[in-house]
Amino acid sequence: MANFENITLEKGMYQHKGGMTAALEQLDPSANYAGTELEGLDAFSRQLKRFNIKVSGKGSDCVEKFFQTANSAALFPEYVSRAVRQGMERADILPNLVATVTDIDGMDYRSIVSAPSEDDKSLKVVSEGAAIPQTAIKTRENLVKLCKRGRMLVASYEALRFQRLDLFTVTLNQIGAYIARAQLKDAIDVLINGDGNSNAADNVSVAESGSLSYGDLVKLWANLSPYELNTILAPTEQMQAILGMSQMQDANAGLDFQGSGKMVTPLGATLLHAPEMTSGKIIGLDKNCALEMVQAGGVVTDYDKLIDRQLERAAITCTAGFSKIFTEAAKTLS
Hints:
- By secondary structure, this protein is of the alpha/beta class.
- Helices cover 32% and strands 17% of the residues.
């Protein structure tokens, strides 16, 4: 039953599809621990328990605890990757923009597209014996552009060995936040300018006054039809203009914002603040069908260097790109 205590850990596990955690789960399935005190822990967490490594909370261990044995040292890169992913998830608003996430093993990926005409969108009555209208789906002309984003971990083992893991986790969380913001910037660029397949977002012009009004948001909502305007992405200046609209200053909405920090929702759309946007535009989109995220391998660390305590130049990277699904499902307002 306690198979997790007898597993030999080594570098090769990081080359397993899915990384160290997937390799451990294959050797030590979590399903075997149902109804025990270890239920709820995944295979990696059981290894931390095996070596009595506490990575958070009161009594958090020092970094050197990972390097007491060769087996426990093999866990260190996975700890680093998890802490970076945790930081990405905390700072990440991409789940509010992305309709689907595609994981690939290589670096080349060509998405698919369906571009129905207005006539194709109207599902007409099909007479007996008549041909049923067709929807053509084909691959994109150009590949999805994948960008590697990351940070170099520059520190000596001697400088970190006596640092508490919970403090080190905060630093790694911040690296994850940097990566998430960079990926958001890539996603915004694709939503506005397209993914290289002549599919830049159409622009809806504001009123002649040049200042943003509630009527402009209504215009954006109308122009997005038949897609649903369920997400609005705005830079700081435009966010302030929206929140300053009289229609956004309803008493109940104000209490929600002041009490929980939750933004008001103009026209029922989720309002997201994106300081990364510098174009002065507002993006309105249907998150269910506007954007595809393509990622290769998730968070990747230099596991060889980390295991061998060569932290001085250890890279932490994440490779991802974005592709438009339905071009008309996102429009800009400026």
